[in-house]
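U., I forgot to send this yesterday:
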Amino acid sequence: MLSPELLSSSFAAAVPYEQYVATGTPDQRDQWGRIHARASLTASQSSLVRGFTRRVNVLVSSGLWCGDCAHQCPMLARIAEAGPIQSDGRGVDLRFIDRDKAPDLADQIRICGGTRVPTAIFLSEDYYFVSLLGDKTLSRLRAKADKSLGEFCPVPGAELPSDELAATLSDWLDEFERVHLILRLSPRLRHTHGD
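Result:
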């Protein structure tokens, strides 16, 4: 069970995007950096994230070696950059933890029996589980199915088509918005915040 205690301690052990990527090899940093440079939110998407009135904690179980992580995690960073934590506590706090260094967490978030990465765990401000999205977004799954390559992960360094990047970023943004609305409409949190 994903208890607030496990999630809180895992979140505390996790690190921000830049710090996480800095631990990779030069090739890994380059691969992640290329997608980060290409991923961008539209003005309306950025405005949406800046408008979040609740804190959205996002804990990502990842691997710097993983092609899907290199393609998707920089998009998560771009979303978080659009809505940083404000002085009143609202915004997005995004943290990364290496799957292999957090086996207790990885075991609790298996997808189809496997410890898949990336897996994003969306949490309330007080570390209650809200949602989990992992392995690939719907757009990434559709693209993989269309290619029918049978590979487990994309070849490291493979170029991500622009349309797939935009669709995947949109998928992730939809989940961030969905989670924010769950938090915003939560009777428990509305009582806590008096709104």
